[in-house]
Amino acid sequence: MSQAVELSDVWMSFPGKAEGEAIHVLERIHLEVKHGEFVCIVGPSGCGKSTLLNIIAGFIVHTRGHVLVEGSPVQGPDSRRIFVFQENGIFPWLTVRDNITFGLDRDDPRREETLRHYVDMVGLTGFENAYPRELSGGMRQRVEIARALAAGPDIIYMDEPFGALDFLTRLKMRNDLIHIWQEERKTVLFVTHDIEEAVQLADRIIVMSRRPATVQEVVEVGLPRPRDLDSKEYLAIRDRIFSCMGLSAKVGS
Question: What's the total number of domains in the chain?
Fold first, then answer.
């Protein structure tokens, strides 16, 4: 059986300002993601983490190499794979109800049941008729996650979805996301600049180098969930990633 995602010798360059100039962003990327796995991608700011995720999602065409999702070459965005953005990913003119059910067939007899299931799962019961402007940042992210899940995707791509939230809300959202993932068991690729977040969430962590970025290390987390953020095992993995990126654990991520 094929992997959920397979990348082989993937390179990415963008045209520079001068004629014939190229900006090399990614090189020699080899990566596999198993079905139902939660994988985080971390690396220095500007190294190409989001570019890599956009290539896998089909929004950007890579320069060379092979990108397979569910065993087939990526030829563009696919409704079976949903992208969750950092912010402003939901429609401000639609209610919570209409945002979550946006990708569902209006004649689907299970439409209302699906809505209730995911509204309850993300803790938005009672807010079905609210508009995004009436919700907090964390609640808007819950709407986007619920909409992604309601569409029944094979894979969910998440690009720093909690980056704009305050610290306490991020902690709550991480815990909630893990509970949701454990129930749904979707394949998740999650880009983050926050190493603590990656160690809390992931089965495996892909550590990218500076640009032009390659995969510097793949770290197996292997800790039971929910994770004790003060345990020596958790701190050892965190410090290993900091060290791999040339940072001290005393420096914020």
Answer: 1
Of the CA atoms within 13 Å of residue 7, those in its CB half-sphere come to: 24
**Residue 252 confidence (pLDDT):** 44
Domain membership of residue 230 (yes or no) is yes
Structure tokens at 240: 């290993």
- Two tokens, residue 18: 């001068």
- Residue 229 falls within a domain, yes or no? yes
**125 found inside a domain:** no
User: Residue 216 is part of a domain; what is its CATH number?
Assistant: 3.40.50.300
155 near 4, Cβ under 8 Å?
yes
> What is the residue type of 48?
G
Q: Is 144 exposed, middle or buried (0-12, 13-18, 19+ CB in 10 A)?
A: buried
CA nearest to 61, candidates 80, 77, 41: 77
CB 133 within 8 A of CB 122: no
- List the domain range (segments joined by +) for residue 246: 1-76+194-253
pLDDT at 187 over 90: yes
In a domain, 252, yes or no: yes
Is residue 202 very low, low, confident or very high in pLDDT (cuts 50, 70, 90)?
A: very high
Kind and range of the H or E run holding 99: helix 96-100
Min mean pLDDT across 84-98, 119-133, 146-160, 222-236 is at: 84-98
Q: How confident is the model at residue 30, as a pLDDT? A: 96
Give the containing element (helix H, strand E) for 15. strand 5-15
